[in-house]
Amino acid sequence: MAYSRIPGVFPVLHGEGLTLREMCEEDLPAWFARLSDPEAAAMAGDSLATSMQDVVDGLAYHRNAFATKEALRWAIVPDSLGASVGSIGIVRLDEENLSGEIGAAVGRAHWGQGFATGATRLVVDYGFGVLGLERIEAVALASNGRSVRVLEKLGFTREGLLRGYRIVNGTRADFAIYGLLGSDWSMRATDSR
Ligand SMILES: CC(C)(COP(=O)(O)OP(=O)(O)OC[C@H]1O[C@@H](n2cnc3c(N)ncnc32)[C@H](O)[C@@H]1OP(=O)(O)O)[C@@H](O)C(=O)NCCC(=O)NCCS
Fold first, then answer.
1. Which ligand 1 atom lies nearest to the CA of residue 139?
2. What's the gap in Å between 65 CA and the centre of ligand 1?
3. What pLDDT digit, counting tens, does each position of 37-64 carry?
4. Letter string b/e over residues 113-128, b meaning 16 or more CB atoms within 10 A of that residue's CB
5. What mean pLDDT is reported for the chain?
6. Continuous segment of H or E residues that includes residue 67
């Protein structure tokens, strides 16, 4: 379903020492490296990429999702590096309920430098401030400590356990669902002033 507040020109976001921009062909090699990393792909609940064609198809998918106003996926580019280290997206946008789901992935070589936290903060701000969302969700493999930590640092609340939610490496795995309301976020912004 289309979400009418997605703009016609791809939104570039700046802040947190990062630029979030539309994904493009130059991101494909790093993206392939990330998606062909078995542990990282399993942590994200993604299927393992086996050829460059998988990410070429992925790029076409994300471009189409933007063109049809269904979803947004940004490349995460630290200002200090000038190249993409991962990506972050907002999907399942629901105009009736003003909700959407966020998810990020960063290449293993860049883990632990705050990139996912900074990028999530920027996209959450954009989601509440510009897209007019009132609820943002995230679903993470329950055993994915890094992902859970990023969400909890930003004030997401763990709302439940989705038992056997997805098949990861051939086994049904539990995922945790997290939610953040616009009112939680504006309260945090007021508190930090
Ligand atoms: C999850 C992921 C996006 C995090 O990216 P990142 O840029 O490394 O995240 P950040 O550096 O912003 O924050 C990571 C936090 O997790 C903490 N952490 C690291 N290992 C951890 C572990 N095993 N358990 C709990 N917390 C952990 C870090 O210390 C840091 O917290 P801190 O700032 O309080 O020290 C990245 O690891 C990734 O892409 N993993 C594979 C794909 C994936 O899991 N995607 C998420 C789909 S929901």
1. 48
2. 27
3. 998 888 888 888 999 999 999 999 999 9
4. ebbbbbbbbbbbebbb
5. 95
6. helix 52-67
